[in-house]
Amino acid sequence: MTSGYQIVVCGGLVPDPLQTLEPVSTPNGPALKNEMMLPVALDPWAGHALYEAAHLAKQIPGSKVWLVSLGAKPKLQQLMMSVAQKAAFEFVPVEGNAGGFMSAYDCAAALTAAIKGIAGLDMTRLLLFGGWESASRGAGSTLQLIGESLGIMDQFMGVDEIKPQADGSFTVLERVEGARHQESLCQGAPAVLGWATGSLPEPMNNPQIGMMNMRSIMPALQRAPKANVALDGIEYASVELPKQQRDTRIVKDLSVEQIAQEIVDWIKQ
């Protein structure tokens, strides 16, 4: 393949998983307590997609990576301080509400508009990467909605590996039932790939890559368009933390079968 891929990664920001998240009701709908004060991180599934995209771009000459993300400007800037040194990409920010209670359809519409606005994007070379699931909204539908809006019919979910071929085609390893993988052959771009965990570790921080990325990140944040993403049409009866239940007994001399049976009986309750 001589022209290379144009890889667009859709990556959302999520609250740092080490923080305690407490849902609250506000005049604008459900939200997280002190949400603007919570540190953020790149969605773990989207992180795998970004690292795989950067690795693929290194393999195929002429390839380029864009990272498209929706969120409040201060949060997007905070996110870039930790992500910019991981991989080389051009940042395409969209300013808007990116809370976990937002509609996947509205988020997909905002991200689709941002992708269509990328100057010089060649749809015949486009690979749309993203997370198979999401730590902020587990519907797993946002990426598929974007692909449909862009007219991309070849979609693969639960991807762990992609192997490009010399003729521009590539094989895709997808997770299926029974802890197995399905290997598919795609004739080439455009295609949508929703990544699971992939096969690459998190890259080490590279200050040189960070400096190169920051030259375009700050100007991109300043001109980030606003997206009207709200809770219109969505109603939540209640939002609360999952209830914790703990029943502790100290018992000696039980067999493994008896312990297993007690656990099964407790779950059934």
Oligomeric composition of the shown chains:
single chain
If you average the pLDDT, what whole number results? 84
User: Which class in CATH terms?
Assistant: Alpha Beta
* Total of DSSP H or I helical runs spanning 4+ residues: 6
Q: What low-confidence regions span 5 or more consecutive residues with pLDDT below 50?
A: none
Largest sheet properties: 8 strands, mixed
Give the total of domains: 1
Could you characterize the architecture of this molecule?
It contains 6 helices and 12 strands. By secondary structure, the protein is of the alpha/beta class. The protein has one domain (6-222): Rossmann fold, CATH 3.40.50.620. The mean pLDDT is 84.
Keywords for this entry:
269 residues, alpha/beta, Rossmann fold, eight-stranded mixed β-sheet, two-stranded antiparallel sheet, 6 helices, 12 strands, 29% helix, globular
Question: How do the strands and helices of this protein lay out in sequence?
Answer:
Layout: E1 6-10, E2 13-15, E3 23-26, E4 29-32, E5 40-42, H1 44-59, E6 64-71, H2 73-83, E7 90-95, H3 104-116, E8 126-131, H4 142-149, E9 155-164, E10 170-176, E11 180-186, E12 191-195, H5 207-222, H6 256-268
Parallel strand pairs: 1-6, 1-8, 6-7, 8-12, 9-12
Antiparallel strand pairs: 2-5, 3-4, 9-10, 10-11
Write a compact overview of the structure shown.
The chain contains six helices and twelve strands. It is of the alpha/beta class. The longest helix is centred in the first third of the chain and has 16 residues, at 44-59.
